[in-house]
Each structure stands twice: as C-alpha cells, then as structure tokens.
C-alpha cells in the first residue's frame, strides 16, 4: 500500500506491507521518476509473493495523468477527495509532505484491513476529460467577457460619464457606438481614452472568441457521442446546447447515480444538515458541493424556464407566497427539479440503443437551430405541476 502527497517538485511517499510500519521513498514527480517508482513497486510486490499494489493520492490540479499511468501498469489506484478527508485543527496547520503522505497511507490501510470508507472520487475517461476542455473554455471566455463589461462600467463611474438617453439599458449597439465616440473625444484625458480603447478591443476579441467556441461546441454536440442525448435535452424548456454539454461533460457517466437524491447531492443542491445530540433535523443553506459550472448553467436555465412560461413557471410564485423572503429558495427548487429531469432524459437517451432518425439529425455542422420543444411530464414533488414547455430559447442558452 502506497500513499503519496502529489506535488510538482520531488516529494516523499509512504509504503507499507500489510500491518507493518510505513517506509519512506523519495520519488521525483517526473515521467522518468514515475516509471522508476512503478518498477520498484512491482519488484517489491514480486518479492512479497506477487502481492497486490494499492496506491492512493489526493486529487489536485495535476489531473489524472498519474492515475492513468498506474492503471496501465496494473496498479489499483484511488484518487481521494481532499474535502472529504477528516482532519483536526492541528493537522490543518501542520501539513508537511511526509505527514500528508502518511495520513493517506493510513486511510488506505484502514480501508483495506478494516473496511473503512475511502473518500474516493470518480475518475473520468480520457475522452470525457478532453471534451471538458472546450466546454470549460467557453464558460471561461464568458466569465472574462462579463469582467470586461464590469470594468467598462467602473471606468465610466470614475470618469463621471453617464450614458446618454436613447442608448438602451444593456449592451446595445448604440451604447457601444457611444463608447467608441468617447475614445475619440479630445475633451477627455488621453489616459481615459486609451483605457476605453483597450477595453473595447478586449471586448471585441472575447466576443469573437466566444463565437468560435460556440461553433466548436456545436460540432462536439453533433458527434455520435453526444448527438442523440443533446437533441433530447435541448427539447426541454430553458435548456440549450451549452447547458446540455456542460451537464453531460461535467457529470460523465450518468449511470453511477442511482436516484434523484444522489444527483441532487452531487450537484450541491440539497440543504446543509447540522446535527448534534438529539437534534437531527436542522437544515441550512445548500451545500454547494460538486461542479459549480453545472449550478451556474442550471441557474440560467431555471430563469429561462420560469420566464418563458415553462413547466416550473408557478414554482417561484407558490414558494414566495408562503414566505416572500424565499425567492432564492424557489430558484434553487427549480434548478433541482430541472437537474433531475435532465438526468432522467439523458440517461434514457444514453441507454436507448435506437439510433437517431436521419430526418432529426442536423444537416449543417454549424447550425444553431434547436428542435421544437416537447411536452414535459411533471417531475416529482408532493404537488404535480402542469404546464407546457413551449418556450422559444436560443440554441446556446443564455450567455453566462
């Protein structure tokens, strides 16, 4: 059994055989260092009578390269969730590499020898990891665009400039034209003009980059891996290609969730629980565990679902009627219902062996048209809500 606190620089790992004391091994985190480590572990396993090799390390920004390398070598690898490992206050303050590696080894030994629960995470396959890159790049570009727009507003406030009437309230063409005229206004300082010109160039670049990423995302959604599932999900009210692709790539294998409670807990859309003594039903805010990118697009889809008179259009009004301060709770409820509905639809589409009919397949690889919305069945709850999902939404969902 091996525990390794993975870092960029050469670090230490702890090794133990059965219930024996742990030994220390120095391994550089390089391709050659990992290969030598695997050879040394295999030699020791053969000397111990072809014993099994079990490896554990914490998930980090280095991805799953070590997991792939160990799995290909026949080593059973466990990637642990750092947020699920219980640590005392002193352990959080004293975090040397050797002590972290020893704690990981002790968790692995407790799992193997005593059957304790091991806080492992699901390791996605290489194709899912590669598909996530373009989806996450699209979301990151949208976040940068939002930050640039906020910078424009802050710059105008510092300069004491107010947008003229007739330019609308949002980022209209008239408003952008007025910003361009400010860059040529000699009455303003040269520093302010140069700053506005730089921000507008960044704005145009990000908008063009988002258009390119949208095209790449559409091409990915039309691949055989996602085509049928995306077509089914895009038929739901408020759900577009972007929301569907974020949901599918971030969740990966949908069959690993057994019921709606597990999918809600994984997405962090269930209330936090605080229990002590005899009090076992004290609920708080949502846990916000799991991928935040999914919650982000689900929030946008939920608002589109409500505003476009979708199946959940009465949920906010019904919940806010009981308590006007629970408007956010109503939004979270719609997000949770939509996530469960998307999970059911996507799982059925993935398990359905029937190929997509040719007349339903997109003819152009860059099309932005979405299929007509289908009627949805009410999804769970004590009161079954009725409604039509006849909402016209863009294929790429609301831009975050």
Condensed summary:
The protein has helices at residues 31-47, 65-72, 89-93, 97-114, 126-159, 173-183, 190-221, 227-234, 241-251, 260-266, 292-307, 315-322, 327-351; strands at residues 2-4, 11-15, 23-27, 54-58, 76-80, 271-276, 279-286. The chain is α/β, with parallel strands linked by helices. The strands form two sheets. It has a five-stranded mixed beta sheet with strand order 3-2-1-4-5. The protein has a two-stranded antiparallel ribbon with strand order 6-7.
Q: End-to-end distance, in Å? A: 45 Å
Number of structurally distinct domains: 3
User: SSE order, as H and E?
Assistant: EEEHEHEHHHHHHHHEEHHH
Strand order of the largest sheet: 3-2-1-4-5
Explain this structure.
- The protein has 400 residues and is an alpha/beta fold.
- It has three domains: 2-114, Nucleotidyltransferase, domain 5, CATH 3.30.420; 126-221, no CATH class; 227-360, no CATH class.
- It is built from 13 helices and seven strands.
- The strands form two sheets. The chain has a five-stranded mixed sheet. Strands 6-7 form a two-stranded antiparallel sheet.
- Helix 5 packs antiparallel against helix 7 (190-221) and helix 8 runs antiparallel to helix 13 (327-351).
- The longest helix is centred in the middle third of the chain and has 34 residues, at 126-159.
- It is globular, with a radius of gyration of 26 Å.
- The chain starts with a strand and ends in a 49-residue tail after the last helix.
- The model is unreliable at 362-371 and 378-395 (pLDDT under 50).
């Amino acid at each position: 059994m091996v525990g390794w606190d993975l870092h960029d620089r050469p670090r230490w790992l702890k090794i133990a055989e059965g219930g024996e004391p742990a030994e220390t091994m120095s391994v550089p985190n390089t391709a050659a260092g990992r290969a030598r480590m695997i050879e040394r572990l295999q030699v020791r396993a053969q000397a111990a009578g072809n014993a099994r090799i079990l490896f554990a390390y914490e998930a980090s920004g280095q991805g799953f390269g070590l997991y792939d390398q160990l799995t290909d070598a026949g080593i059973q690898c466990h990637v642990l969730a750092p947020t699920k490992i219980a640590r005392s206050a002193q352990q959080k303050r004293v975090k040397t590499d050797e002590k972290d590696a020893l704690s990981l080894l002790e968790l692995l030994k407790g799992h193997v020898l005593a059957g304790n629960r091991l806080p492992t995470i699901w390791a996605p396959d290489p194709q899912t990891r590669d598909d996530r890159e373009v989806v996450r790049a699209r979301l990151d570009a949208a976040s940068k665009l939002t930050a640039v727009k906020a910078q424009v507003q802050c710059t105008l406030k510092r300069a004491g400039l107010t947008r003229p009437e007739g330019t609308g309230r949002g980022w209209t063409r008239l408003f952008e034209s007025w910003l361009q005229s400010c860059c040529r206004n000699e009455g303003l300082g040269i520093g302010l003009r140069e700053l506005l010109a730089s921000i507008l160039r960044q704005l145009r670049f990000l908008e063009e980059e988002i258009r390119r990423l949208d095209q790449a995302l559409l091409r990915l959604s039309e691949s055989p891996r996602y085509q049928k599932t995306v077509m089914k999900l895009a038929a739901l009210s408020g759900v577009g290609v972007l929301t569907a692709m974020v949901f599918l790539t971030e969740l990966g294998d949908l069959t690993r969730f057994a019921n709606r409670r597990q999918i809600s807990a994984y997405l962090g859309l269930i209330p936090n629980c605080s229990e002590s003594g005899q009090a076992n039903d004290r609920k708080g805010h949502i846990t916000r565990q799991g991928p935040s990118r999914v919650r982000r697009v689900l929030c946008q889809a939920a608002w589109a679902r409500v505003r476009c008179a979708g199946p959940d259009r009465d949920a906010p009004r019904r919940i806010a009627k009981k308590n006007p301060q629970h408007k956010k709770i109503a939004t979270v409820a719609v997000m949770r219902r939509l996530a469960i509905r998307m999970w059911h639809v996507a799982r059925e589409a993935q398990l359905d062996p029937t190929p997509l009919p040719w007349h339903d397949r997109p003819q152009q690889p860059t099309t932005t048209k979405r299929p007509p919305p289908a009627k949805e069945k009410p999804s769970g709850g004590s009161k079954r809500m009725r409604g039509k999902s006849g909402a016209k939404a863009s294929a790429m969902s609301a831009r975050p």
